[in-house]
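Reopening closed ticket. The problem is back. First fold of the pair:
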Amino acid sequence: MVFSRFRSNWILISALALLLIVPAMFSVASAPDDFARIAPGYRSIKTMGELEYIEVNTPAEDGSPKQLIVFVHGTPGSFSAFLHYVDDPVMREHFHMISVTRPGWIDSSATKIPSLNEQAKALEPIIKMDLLGKGAILMGHSYGGPVIARTAMDYPELVAGLIFVATTADPEFSGPRWYNRFAVVLPRFILGASLKGANAEIMPLRPQLEAMRPRWQDLVMPVLIVQGDRDRLVNPRNADFLNQMLVNADVTYLKREGQGHFVLWEEAELIRDTLIEKFL
């Protein structure tokens, strides 16, 4: 009886502790959904297959098509993670921009699709919307990194460049942690739909990244890597892994001292200026 009570109390205490620390430790990779920030001129939210997207493609003065850039959020997340970039007038001047909500995240309670192969398939028709004929630039944050990497590996002829911002990549540092394993047994009403969904994507990630290991050498497009050295959600050594594995790509590696996982927003102007210089 005493042991049973002790075990029940331990489980309760552990669950309460997870409620406090897991939200801070998961790869929460999106800005809050704030539709009030969507600037005038946005087209309506569209659906293509199992994903949603917003698109901004203001006409160039000479009528020529612009370079397509596709933004891919982490886990959990939505297209709103990249509103800062889509709202930026400099980005609008130079790019045809599409920000997606990945399959499984249109509704946070929907069944998640943890297969990177399936995520890449869902992006294929989006990157085919390139009107310039040079292929799309793909920009991914956190879990969005392996999604865009797999997309480039599967559809290299459709991809003109890759931008990895605080992304996971190295199987050694990208597997589930103790709290991910614990969260598997926690019911949705305790953990919440978003974090439960994020856990579903993270748990099978390591073997998929291991399978991708020999394919990094096949990527020959320009690549930008951005990583903060104080990132507590994605180990900064993931960026070192990317830099070492992309042996046939033209890599620019921005190490940001003092920055964490939210370098995507905190260094937005630097990232914007660097990607314009590199890809245009």
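Second fold of the pair, where the issue appears:
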Amino acid sequence: MSFADRVTAYRQRVDTALEHWLPPATTHPERFHAALRYAVLGGGKRVRPLLVYAAGEWLGLPAARLDGIAAALEIVHAYSLAHDDLPAMDDDNLRRGRPTTHIAFDEATAILAGDALQAHAYFVLATDAALDATPAMRRSLVLDLARASGSAGMAGGQALELDPAGATQATLAAVEARYWLKTGRLIAAAVTMPCRLLAPDDDTALAMAQRYGRALGIGFQIADDLIDIECSAEVSGKPQGSDQRNGRTTVPDVIGVPATRQRLAVLRDEARTALAGAGGSAGGLRWLGDEMLAGQGTTGRSA
């Protein structure tokens, strides 16, 4: 049975983990906690959790040890979407085929929901007994997520995207550097964080995961650029042309669509090469890499 045959089960698995870790909707204040759950449980492709479980298969780790990592990454991703969609950022009213959190509730609630979700992800990593992690392992997991989501990662990349100088100083290298921070580091963390559960540490596996994660993370955002240009809201689950409407400089803006497809193919090859010595147990990572960097892959939209 291929990894593709296990995707549905893994998505159900992380949804169960998220239900476990998120406060019930009946928790006071009820409307606020309903917003938290709305932001996280509204569908999506669960790309980051899938990468966690695929990395676990490669490393020989049981899925039960990975549920907390998968949930924490998805919670951080959901918080970032709730904030990205706000009028002060991308001003989008549709996400995953339904109203964004600030439309379904209100702007202040969406901001606070994102704040609470970010903190909650670290609560999961700090308290999940099923991780079966030593204090040093748990510290590494917290550091990985903090670096991937903070000013040297996702938040910093978003700040660069909002900088008006970016549109006038755009080069392929500059845009890809922004992509690495905004999107790539969290994608890569989904592959490297499971490596932290190995004892003793396996530097070879970690280096392989880092190379694969970097190519995949940058390529995933480039694939999303093509989806934003070519796919309708009915297909992608979010407004078409959002980047152009918000004045965001993308890779297709810099080098054109045909060259963007060529660049995506190069990154797909780099991801495959990174796993060249990983053996058959890395089949899930290989499959996900091909799907995520296809430009219109099944895992690449509404992720």
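Update: turned out to be a display glitch only; the data is intact. The chain has one domain: 3-292. The domain at 3-292 is CATH 1.10.600.10 (Farnesyl Diphosphate Synthase). Please close again.
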